[in-house]
Model the fold of this input.
Amino acid sequence: MKPIRNSIETSPVELKKEDFVSDQTVKWCPGCGSHIILSAVENAFPRIGYRKENFVIVSGIGCSSRFPYYVNTYGFHGIHGRAHAIATGVKLANPGLSVWVSTGDGDSLAIGGNHFIHVIRRNVDVNIILFNNQIYGLTKGQFSPTTPRGTVTKTSPDGTIEDSFNVGQLVLGAQGTFFARVIDNMPQLLSEVLYLAAKHDGTSMVEVLQNCVIFNDKAYEHLTNKETRDDNILILTPDEPMIFGKNRDKGIAWKEGKLVVVELGKDASLQDILVHRPYEDNFYLHTMLCQMMPPQYPLPVGVIRMVKKPTFDDLMVEQINRAKETSNIRCVDDLLNSGSVFEIN
Amino acid sequence: MVNEKESVVIKFAGDSGDGMQLIGNIFSDNSAIFGNDLATFPDYPAEIRAPRNTVAGVSGFQVHIGKKRIYTFGDFCDILIAMNPASLKANLKWAKKGATIILDEDAFTAEACQKAGYSSNPLNDGTLGAFHVIKAPITSLTRKTLEKFQLAPKVADRSKNMFALGIIYYLLNRKLDLTFAYFEKKFGKDSLATETNKIVLEAGYNFAENIEAVESKIHVPPAKLEKGKYRNITGNIATAWGLLAAAEKAGLQLFLGSYPITPASDILIELAKHKSLGVKVFQAEDEIAAITSALGASFAGALGVTTTSGPGLSLKTEALGLAVMTELPLVIVDVQRAGPSTGMPTKAEQSDLYHALFGRTGEAPIPVIAASSPSNCFYYAFNAAKIALEHMTPVILLTDGFLGNGSQLFRIPRMADMPAIHPPFAKPGEEYKPYRRNPDTLVRYWAIPGTEGMRHRIGGLEKEDVSGIVTTDPLNHQKMVELRKNKVLKIADDLPSQTVTGNHQGDLLVVSWGSTEGVIHAAIEELLQEGYPVAHTNFNYLFPLPANTADIFSHYRKILVCELNSGQFANYLRMCFPQFTYLQYNKIQGLPFTQVEIKEAILKYL
Done:
């Protein structure tokens, strides 16, 4: 993959994974999905190609939010839920930085829900990696806004009595321009998705379904188990038909106003299978893809939506540049002496 | 005949849609250009359009102009314009005995009088016996004046305020030409609005002349001001400009993260107008995002600022702790209003002091500064930013609704004369450690993302001294807590000495802070003229306090602390300097002190 060219300065030399490995001891539990995400980021950053000093990672609170300490970039470990707002400030103040947020389901969808929807709505050019393990890990096992209804946890000994958020639906509901979903056992796909997230101008939201080995082990077993995963996952590839299954004999088609799973050669032919077009602004289809999940459907992974819209940071700079061209007030002395001023001699 | 006066207080009062703020501002600008010193204060209801003709819907604007120096917007008015019975009802108690009261006679219908809470018509029942009343049929004469334009009565009535202003121009012996020019600039030379406003203003003036409204017109000669350029400015605008000035002086981009809140929104609105100066204004989704985005901007190398009022400050508390921990520059402006909770949004108070000083969890010292006049908001906003940038710390700047909305003459400084600001940028080429400090000031160095060789991580977790590595080492934590505290205490080395007006030792020292300076200063000047042995000191730097504070206190037998709360500064002083005894004079009504009240309070202890 070629280095990404945009207004962020590229590195004059080729960078390697080692350029981003920090000297800090990684303190996540052995077997935690976060290790794979870290490795995917360290692989993706050199390929993105920006100067290493131009990466900034911002986080909130939770296991996911220890992330900045483990990558050798500029980093800001913030407070619970506020990473998106901090990152917005970083990006607006210096659009020449590649700004990343590492966050979790509690951080972004509970305490930081407001900042989460608004950063997406504004389309600030930041890249968000949301570690979704459906549980509070750092506080040791309370349910989160993505914990499925009925789940028994420390704070729901009789099962939760609330529905969970579907992250993709939230992102699209907030006018999101980029949404991807990956499972933590797919390091290569994750690395590729992170590259595309960096390339996308606007808020890129990458949800990683991540296994918490201690408090919510095997929550995604049906998606990762060798026996069942191929029938439960649909890997989306741009401009390719939505085919899945162990024998790649199943696909997604549109019938009677809804998406259906069809079997090739049985009740459908290749022409009936929908082709994935993430860059076409097909809000309804993208939303339906976000909603698909087992057992009725396979879970789509990869980039679900990646559409073009102006970014908040670009528009802000544009307005400033226009004001600079047209205004008579070019410095504070001009401002102080503008309007009704009189002189005493 | 013209009668010369040292100063005059005028209050414009009407329904909230009557345009009182507009004519108040036009008159103030006119007075400023004429050369009067002045102070103004708008007093408006929280509701945009409260029910017509009710006391709750009265919008007022008070202006105090003078030949002498003006320190307050005035306790009681010499001239009251009341556009309806409700505005008379709400403001008559603020009129001096013998004051001139101008009324829109047409508005005093039985129904409107009743709605205002009058059982009979105050125009005829003797209520106004002690005043000089000018009954003017403002509504009908305005309509008549505009007859040839064939406007709907509703539209014509919008010009009523200009008729009232015309009467004031006659009483104050003012010329109309400057205001004509203002209309032309605002509405366009040939526009209908310019024409209608002009002829109604003139009609008001001529009406007053024809009926010989007063025996003698009032002339307030220009004040003897220091040479220089002047303008009229509100505290909120002065705050916005002071922040712009600091950013320019420091060579940094100004970033404002803010959420609209009364009475602080005008700072946000003002800065949003000045994109040509490169300021980035971000209206956030809430108060928390407002401060955290500003802190993120500071991390990225900008001067991060957030502006708010009490309810917003409480929401920002968590991020204040983060700002202390990350030791990044940040200015938090709190335009105080009467609290707690939503309280009285349009009324001011000095009751956020405890929150500013102590309102955090953990050991989290933050410098606190208070502006004390609308125009010095410019300098204290500038200094708040200077301290934040040079000492790598959040700084809380307290102003309040009186300062923010009130206006005053402002002597325009030259940017070349403003002090330099030197942020402690990390030196390129040297090995960077995020919590290495300048040994004299204990200030850490600022490495801006994007800079080669300085990649580092900061955050809310406790860090090891120098290296910045996350640690829970007990002795390190104590050391870092002390370093953060001592860093802030050392700011006192850069502060100007506290000064005293009046006797430098003696019986009674009156202590104030923030916006009450003007009224107390005016009271003290009078008492000194009357020969009383009093002194006054007003604090702008609240934490840390100026180094000579205890020394000043030690020269007086009694210390009287006056503030618009139940004694927050007095208690703070008790904590800082327990060797002294503090008397208190407090008011918690959402109203400013009056000069009379202050004089009485002081005389009680003399």
